Amino acid sequence: MERKNKMKKLLSTISIILSLSFMAGSVVGTVQKPNLASPLEQKISTDKTELYKVFKFSHAFKEYRIVTNLDYQEYIKKSQIKRQWHGYEYVTFTDDIIEIAIQLGEIAIADKQPVDAVVMSFVQYLPYESDNIKYGGDYPKYPIETLVDGGGDCEDTSYLAVSLLRALGVNSVLLNPYGHMAVGTQKEIWNGGMYVTYNGIEYSYYEPTMIGWHKGMIPDDYKGKKIKIIN
Predict the structure, then answer these.
(1) Does residue 117 fall inside a structural domain?
(2) Which residues on neighbouring strands pair with residue 186, listed in sequence order?
(3) For the whole model, what pTM was predicted?
(4) Residues β-bridged to residue 119
(5) Domain range enclosing 34
(6) CA torsion angle for 111, 68, 212, 36 (degrees, to 10)?
(7) Fewer CB within 10 A of the terminal residue: the chain, N end or C end?
């Protein structure tokens, strides 16, 4: 029943987003770094089934908190799966994704901000963590792993971002500049900057690891170079 209620709430959020013209993806405001001096708020339940965690991020001059009770057993389960090469198997639609997507969608609606920009601000504020340090090599994470760990590298945050964006009804894809991964969201007519065309649809480039980088902004290392869409 709880999942059914979450789905109803999510569908209601998507319906409101789709009905509002300002949600189409134009950039509003700019990202400011929030005060992250206080320690990350998190606590695991006594039965080790849930991890209470608070994520902080900033968007358009305002600071936000996303409060979650992450499924810790799902985290354990996913961490035991043998890693495969990168792809959409790491884009998931779990209760944790639904809950966070609802909160981000409500922020976008309340503050009249593009939903894709709010989602990307949330993801960009997750600390960058190299796989080499923790895993000794390439280790693509499922979104629940990135959320519990509190960070990840470019592919980890891209998988999380696309999971959240698709949960909110945003047409989004994984982009693959050489040696990197990023996010593409369907381009609106007024959006400038870098974009990639796939099956007749233009997808604007979104950098998942750089705080404050808006739709269409691309690192200098990838300007003028081929960017593939992972399909």
Answers:
(1) yes
(2) 203
(3) 0.89
(4) none
(5) 2-169
(6) 110
(7) N
